Amino acid sequence: MRFLTAGESHGKALSLIVDGYPSGVSLSEDFITLELHRRQLGYGRGTRMKIEEDRIEILSGVRRGITTGSPIAALIYNRDWENWKDIMAIWAKGQQEEKVRTGGEGEEKAGAGGEEQRKFQSAGYREAKVSRPRPGHADLAGALKFDLDDIRDVLERSSARETAARVAAGALARLLLLELDIKIFSHVISIGEVELGREIEPQELDQKMIDRSPVRCMDERISRLMMQEIDRAREDGDSVGGIFEVIATGLVAGLGSYVQWDERLDGRIARAVMSIPAVKGVEIGLGFRGSSLRGSAYHDEIFYCQEKGIYRSTNRAGGMEGGMTNGQPLVVRAAMKPISTLAKPLRSVDLVTKEEVRAFQERADVCAVPSAAVVGEAVVALEIANAVQRKFGGDSLAQLKESYSRYKDQIERRLT
Length: 416
Known about the structure:
By secondary structure, the protein is α+β, with helices and mostly antiparallel strands. It has one domain (2-79, 161-341, 364-415): Chorismate synthase, AroC fold. The protein is built from twelve helices and 19 strands. It has helices at 29-40, 48-51, 114-122, 139-145, 152-158, 163-178, 207-212, 220-235, 265-274, 295-298, 369-392, 397-415, and strands at residues 2-6, 13-19, 57-60, 62-63, 66-67, 72-77, 99-101, 125-127, 183-191, 194-195, 242-249, 279-284, 303-305, 309-311, 320-321, 324-325, 330-336, 347-349, 356-358. The chain has a five-stranded antiparallel beta sheet with strand order 10-9-11-17-12. Strands 1-2-6-3 form a four-stranded antiparallel beta sheet, covered by helices on one side. A hairpin with a 3-residue loop joins strand 13 and strand 14. Helix 1 (29-40) packs antiparallel against helix 11 (369-392), helix 6 crosses helix 11 and helix 9 runs antiparallel to helix 11 (369-392).
């Protein structure tokens, strides 16, 4: 199964094509919509989330709610497009003004930066052409890579808005995995300097309870402290990052492979999670934390008893050994840096004038760790679904489940 996304943050829509999805899977529009809604939640999100109401429109590959095996094509419309359709017009209709008014009463024209520019934006205007790169964003490297004189062509596609399409693709993967009793959860374990401070066991996970927390944290007291951390960053005109954890349960041993480097499932998952905008570190199991331990304190010993069969009492490996699942819950953690668009912009250089300016400023989140965790669920689901299909094959759900059931029986016989 593979997927491609297209679309810009303020374009008309995000588009998605999922190829290789098996036939016979019953889809739920409500489930996909809920996943998209969960991505929009979280304390510290910007005003954009008050505008959008993400829903998927499936164009092909599904008939009467059941997948057909053909490529699934879908759209997620951007409601904010109405405020940007002049700036983001596909076709040129005469000379576009460099600055386009989309609301407000201000009349002054913006300069390259400084107080005048901030007044211009606060009056409701949007910059059609951007030349002041933001430190930490794709702005400068992207403009150089594609030889662009307008950073907007970079920031529109590199925006985390694209992850809405990935969450939709992940929802399709999750519906397939649920047919095999594989479930995926996520929660936030730190924001800024505030940490949960304890390990969460898979049996504790309650997705509805996690989603009720504004920061998607399992502890109410820590949730409040995390919100205060976000409030302090907002008051300072700053942003704040954190760490989230994704846990998958119900996995059989043997997904992935040690035979070739690109078949290792831990490598595929690490790449997928690292591809989420602003994620700068990924670990499985103890990860970085285990590097200071001795082997005797790190590795998960193997035991046997008649009641349980072969089992382990710890899961420091995070469910992954030799590039393969080992039958325990998969535990993935990701470190997300602070958002690079700040209310008090950092110093930068105008690419046209070469003058020192303050970086371009557009509305943004103060903290997006809770929503990034939902994106993490989606990309992990996609990689697990791919690993399942590579191992068990099947163009239809019935074929896949038959092969999967035989393998599970074989594993259980070996372990007991």
